[in-house]
Amino acid sequence: xxxxxxxxxxxxxxxxxxxxxxxxxxxxxxxxxxxxxxxxxxxxxxxxxxxxxxxxxxxxxxxxxxxxxxxxxxxxxxxxxxxxxxxxxxxxxxxxxxxxxxxxxxxxxxxxxxxxxxxxxxxxxxxxxxxxxxxxxxxxxxxxxxxxxxxxxxxxxxxxxxxxxxxxxxxxxxxxxxxxxxxxxxxxxxxxxxxxxxxxxxxxxxxxxxxxxxxxxxxxxxxxxxxxxxxxxxxxxxxxxxxxxxxxxxxxxxxxxxxxxxxxxxxxxxxxxxxxxxxxxxxxxxxxxxxxxxxxxxxxxxxxxxxxxxxxxxxxxxxxxxxxxxxx
Length: 328
What we know:
Blueprint: E1 7-13, H1 17-28, E2 35-41, H2 48-58, E3 62-64, H3 74-87, E4 92-96, E5 101-102, H4 106-121, E6 127-136, E7 152-153, H5 155-158, E8 170-172, H6 173-179, H7 189-200, E9 202-214, H8 229-238, H9 244-261, H10 267-282, H11 284-294, H12 301-323
Parallel strand pairs: 1-2, 1-4, 2-3, 6-9
Antiparallel strand pairs: 4-8, 5-9, 6-8, 7-9
Helix pairs in contact: 1-2, 8-12, 9-10, 9-12, 10-11
């Protein structure tokens, strides 16, 4: 009988003691049992290290590593974890946040979705599968909100926004080998991963809710209350500078990706990305023409209206901030 593949779960922790045990328990209780959990703690000052080590003692599949010298953010922590997974030639890689709760079949359904697509495209083809999620509050109560996700994520869409959440992702070995390294300065590890696979493979939705995604004041990103159209409208129009930092980060991420992969991209992809980056510097009109030509838009009319408005207002400030070194 063929041995079940081992799934490698990468968890970045920092001062997560409040919810960490619930997340760890949900991983230990998975219906699919062939997994390893690799935790890297980023110098926590609360009880997080003690909790981690208690689970290391409890289950041999849980390991805490001290790897790399980069610290200071969730993305940097995940970047170091991903470097470890790449160096150790891991076959199937998932990301885990410290404060969510995984449904009992999360691993089982993630692997099934990925293997289904490997059967279609081949195991040597870079594949990233992402899933739906259910929002919960600080007390584990479900929040009545849905996040519509596209069946696939193409490169033009990803040039503006990521819809694949890291805590729902599973990547095959070909994807890990293609990404190789997630730059610590990319702000969002999942965005960078989706961008690379959008260019060289496929990002495919597993249309099932597989985790309970916690909403609280310490969320690094992805707060559901900020995703509604009215929330975006009120936020963008009452404070037009609100989007300056995300736009700068988006531009820098795309530039970093392009600098690294330019020689591997298709001619069409090179033309699209280079034109977007160049016309961004020239004028809003030139930028819009490029976006229209290559269909570089977000998903949904309302989101595009406020997005184009903020680009019109902030494009010059974005470029000025990029040239001055960004928000580092």
